[in-house]
Design brief:
The chain is α+β, with helices and mostly antiparallel strands and about 260 residues long. It has one domain (about 10-250): Deoxyribonuclease I, Chain A, CATH 3.60.10.10. Helices cover about 20% and strands about 30% of the residues. The protein contains five helices and twelve strands. α2 crosses α3 (about 80-85) and α4 runs parallel beside α5 (about 190-195). The radius of gyration is 18 Å and the shape is globular.
């Protein structure tokens, strides 16, 4: 008699560029609120609490444009703050552009599952300051790797960065890449990523930018074929200049993770 099969595990993923807790919800805010990129503002904690409410429903969250603790954030590590407010037991902050007390430009991870290994990478490019965070759950062939990214604004730099990420993906048995790619789903550099890896392109475009009138799909969650995608959607949470994007996946039976 064959042993009973284990129930498949569902994971809820979220990627969110939070713009350092600046609630830019109109084009004019880029001008009128530009000072908030360097100076503290009392509303940031109210906005962080709202963001904490949004991310709290998920198992693994990738954050972009988070401050790691500088003047503009009242020297509060925003990743740690969100982890505490949303009761995430595991978190990690990667500083990619360290401007001392002025700004700590970072990527962030919030997780309800304990990572096995977390590795930070500096992405190639013409200007420093872009990074990727590789988070592994489990070991060997029974592992899931989640790669959190925030890519460059320029196309040539993104091409180098996506080539680097493709090499990371191809080393993993099961992988997910999510973040702010700063390019559309079927831009030439993304098409090359799909051609060079086992990552699958979603069937639909999901518009995330700008939050007040979404016209561009530049935030993505991508998975390899072995991971079944149940749902992908953009959340109506205009708390940044980006909207968050979420995905529910079903893991193969050989992948089982406990909090």
């Amino acid at each position: 008699m064959n042993p009973p099969s284990l129930p498949q595990q569902h994971l809820k993923l979220l990627s969110y560029n939070i713009q350092v807790a600046m609630a830019s919800t109109r084009a004019r805010h880029y001008l009128t609120q530009s000072w908030k990129h360097v100076l503290p503002h009392a509303q940031c904690f109210d906005n962080l609490d709202r963001i904490a409410h949004v991310v709290g429903d998920y198992d693994i969250v990738g954050l972009q444009e988070v401050d790691g603790g500088s003047l503009r954030s009242y020297f509060v590590n925003q990743v740690e703050y969100l982890a505490e407010r949303s009761n995430f037991p595991f978190w990690h902050q990667q500083t990619n552009r360290n401007l001392g007390k002025v700004a700590q430009h970072s990527n962030g991870l919030l997780s309800r599952i304990k990572p096995t290994v977390i590795t930070e990478y500096k992405l190639p490019g013409f200007l420093p300051g872009r990074g990727a965070l590789k988070v592994q759950y489990g070991t060997g062939q029974h592992s899931l790797t989640v790669i959190l990214v925030h890519l460059a604004l320029g196309k040539r730099a993104r091409e180098y960065q996506l080539g680097f990420i493709a090499d990371l993906v191809n080393e993993q048995p099961h992988a997910c890449v999510m973040g702010d790619f700063n390019c559309a789903l079927h831009s030439p550099e993304m098409d090359k990523l799909f051609a060079d890896t086992k990552l699958c392109a979603p069937e639909e475009r999901h518009l995330t930018f700008p939050s007040w009138r979404p016209k561009r799909n530049i935030d993505h969650i991508l998975t390899t074929a072995e991971l079944e995608v149940r749902e992908i959607k953009v959340l109506d949470a205009a708390l940044s200049d980006h909207l968050p994007i979420s995905m529910e996946i079903v893991l193969p039976q050989e992948l089982q993770f406990s909090p």
